TrEMBL record:
Name assigned to this protein: Glucosyl-3-phosphoglycerate synthase
A GO term for molecular function: glycosyltransferase activity
Keyword line: Glycosyltransferase, Magnesium, Transferase
SUPFAM superfamilies found in the cross-reference section: Nucleotide-diphospho-sugar transferases
The protein's required cofactors: Mn(2+); Mg(2+)
First-tier enzyme category under EC: transferase
Amino acid sequence: MRQAGARSQRVAVVIPAKDEVDRIAATVRAARAIPHVDLVLVVDDGSEDDTQHAARAAGAVVVRHSVNRGKASAMETGASVVAMRDVEGVAPRLLLFLDADLGETAVATAPLVPPVLEGRADCAIAVLPPQPGAGGRGIVTGLARRSIARATGWNPTQPLSGQRCMTRAAFEAASPLSRGWGVETGMTIDLLVAGLTVQEVPCDLRHRPSRNDLSGQLHRGAQYRDVALAVNTRRVRGVKVPSPRRGDNPTNQRPGRPYRAWAPATGS
């Protein structure tokens, strides 16, 4: 049913942004060139620079938090504003969440749209190539990957990727979102436990890497804290797919292949 209306399906790009005046205009312009996109919404999350003005001048609709509330709150604000702009009787827009620092490479997230548009996945997640200058050692990524695997059986390539296209129903299934930098890990677990399908898609993107200086180490420390909090909150609540009920074989997982955590129900 979704595939039949794919040509007319609309997509809203939601870009949380904090002090991104140098890159936001290029990101917005590139996002507007993605097929099916008819709305680019920037949520200025308490910026102290001219991010909101640069985004608006580049053609984005801009909403602003007067104080910094964090990425998850900006995503929720963006999704709410998109819902208000959806038209009754017309399929809700797909939501394409992008980081503000992608610049002109943001257009390369276009491959995330078709798997969701055509109904092959409820959420498509970008897999980025190695980023020049990145200084991390994979500790946070490893924590997120292991935690998702323990809860759902899925071993994602890039569990922290913030470039995600999803249906409105998928976003609601993952709400409320985990706070801080745990949003992607928590969202992935919640989507798979809810019985939805996710798919990683290679995308040729470039963003500002976290370096191995003091600020980079502090950033990764905050990431680790927030991912651990998102994971432990779900572990205490028993949010997981029971091992006997898990479906797709982990050895068959790879970018480009949809993954559904639950095995198909067997008739009696």
